[in-house]
């Protein structure tokens, strides 16, 4: 019976066949230990020389790393492993023998591993990160579907930019100028006016020449928009959503978190509601912490965000940033029009901003003025003006960066490990 490694718990005491690759091996004179993987998980195969033909045992001892094979044996419980099961191997059928596999169990440099990303994905660490990424995606759909949101897919090719064109990739769309999308937000606002509560999940692109551990050129965003939701309503959705995906990973990816050496006690504290601090109070706090360089009206850098996050055990909202450093579409605070009703959610442990969101402007006259202030071409945004021209309502939304969120939850230092094939400033291969 052919089964996957993830299914072996159902077949204890039974003989099964698993299609697998050899991750690693070791052997003594009498026993061969085969570390096997099949994509669904990892299991140890144990072959006892006295219980198999000599030729089969010699085949097992000579197997090379990443050789593909069918392995037949009896599933048995193994309390010594975190997985809980092992395979008592009785037969091996080689599918293809791999020779000179480039990524050996020894240490390799980052550039070498990135050049071989297509193979590096096979490693236990990368497998764990991708499984956690998948769980966050699965939980995202579960959360928004169960809360009445409709999935909408905004275009990737656009004729305008929601936050300016300086960090956009330009291309030609036949005889017109076009850009790769840096956000689907404006389109999601239009969709919210049709469907109430919507969310998108797709790739976005930023031509930002940054080499920090938090930046990718191509990354994935989850962008909900909600009609009739004010700023406070949106913050509640954000903290409930983030708490939900964290708890889902804790529940469903315990083996992967253990493999990565993640301190899960920090994740267990991620329960809504989250603490909040206004931009004004954040400036005061940073001055008290010795950051005399930051002044009111400046945007926060990574050291500032980390200092604020370190003060809390959970993700923290920094709210009400100065109007002049935020995009044109954000609703001003009715009590102080020098700030807008926005918030950045800062992840703990130095992972920085994972969510940016705001209440959106819904007043037609104000939207027109903001566009003029930002010198945006009216003809390119005429369709967007229609949102506030025809039956507009208060509405709010946010965007969560998937890779930064994966890095934080998995405890991975650099976002390049949180996407299957990263696109970095100097990397378009493989």
UniProtKB/TrEMBL annotation:
Which keywords, in A-to-Z order, does the entry hold?
Aminoacyl-tRNA synthetase, ATP-binding, Cytoplasm, Ligase, Nucleotide-binding, Protein biosynthesis
Task: Indicate where this protein resides in the cell.
Answer: Cytoplasm
UniProt xrefs under InterPro entries: Aa-tRNA-synt_II, aa-tRNA-synth_II, aa-tRNA-synth_II/BPL/LPL, Asn-tRNA-ligase, Asp/Asn-tRNA-synth_IIb, NA-bd_OB-fold, NA-bd_OB_tRNA
One Gene Ontology BP term is: asparaginyl-tRNA aminoacylation
Pfam families attached here? tRNA-synt_2, tRNA_anti-codon
Residue stretches making up the Aminoacyl-transfer RNA synthetases class-II family profile domain: 130-430
Concerning PANTHER family, the annotation shows: ASPARAGINE--TRNA LIGASE, MITOCHONDRIAL-RELATED, ASPARTYL/LYSYL-TRNA SYNTHETASE
The molecule here is called Asparagine--tRNA ligase
Organism per entry: Lederbergia galactosidilytica
């Amino acid at each position: 019976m052919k089964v996957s490694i993830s299914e072996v718990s159902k077949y204890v005491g039974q003989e099964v066949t698993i299609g697998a690759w050899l991750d690693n091996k070791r052997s003594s004179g009498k026993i061969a230990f085969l570390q096997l993987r099949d994509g669904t998980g990892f299991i140890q195969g144990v072959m006892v020389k006295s219980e198999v033909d000599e030729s089969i045992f010699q085949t097992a001892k000579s197997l090379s790393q990443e050789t593909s094979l069918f392995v037949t044996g009896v599933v048995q419980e193994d309390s010594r492993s975190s997985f809980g099961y092992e395979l008592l191997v009785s037969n091996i059928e080689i599918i293809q023998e791999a020779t000179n596999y480039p990524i050996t169990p020894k240490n390799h440099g980052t550039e070498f591993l990135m050049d071989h990303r297509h193979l590096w994905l096979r490693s236990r660490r990368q497998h764990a990160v991708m499984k956690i990424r998948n769980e966050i995606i699965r939980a995202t759909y579960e959360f928004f579907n169960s809360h009445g949101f409709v999935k909408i897919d905004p275009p990737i090719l656009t004729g305008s930019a929601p936050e300016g064109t300086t960090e956009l990739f330009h291309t030609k769309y036949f005889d017109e100028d076009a850009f790769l999308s840096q956000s689907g937000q404006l389109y999601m606002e239009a969709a919210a006016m049709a469907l109430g509560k919507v969310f998108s999940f797709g790739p976005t692109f930023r031509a930002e020449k940054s080499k920090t551990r938090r930046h990718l050129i191509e990354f994935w965003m989850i962008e909900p928009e909600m009609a009739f939701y004010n700023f406070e309503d949106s913050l509640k959705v954000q903290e409930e959503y983030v708490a939900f995906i964290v708890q889902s990973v804790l529940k469903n990816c315990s083996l992967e978190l253990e493999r990565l050496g993640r301190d899960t006690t920090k994740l267990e504290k991620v329960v809504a509601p989250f603490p909040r601090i206004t931009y004004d109070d954040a400036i005061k706090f940073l001055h008290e912490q010795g950051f005399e360089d930051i002044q009111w009206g400046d945007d926060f850098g990574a050291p500032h965000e980390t200092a604020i996050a370190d003060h809390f055990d959970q993700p923290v909202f920094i709210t009400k940033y100065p109007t002049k450093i935020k995009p044109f579409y954000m609703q001003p605070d009715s009590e102080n029009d020098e700030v807008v009703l926005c918030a950045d959610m800062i992840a703990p442990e130095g992972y920085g901003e994972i969510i940016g969101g705001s209440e959106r402007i819904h007043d037609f006259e104000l939207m027109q003025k903001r566009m003029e202030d930002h010198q945006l071409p009216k003809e390119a945004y005429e369709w967007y003006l229609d949102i506030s021209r025809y039956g507009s309502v208060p509405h709010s939304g946010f965007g969560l960066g998937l890779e930064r969120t994966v890095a934080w939850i998995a405890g991975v230092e650099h976002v390049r490990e949180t996407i299957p094939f990263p696109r970095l400033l100097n990397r378009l291969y493989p």
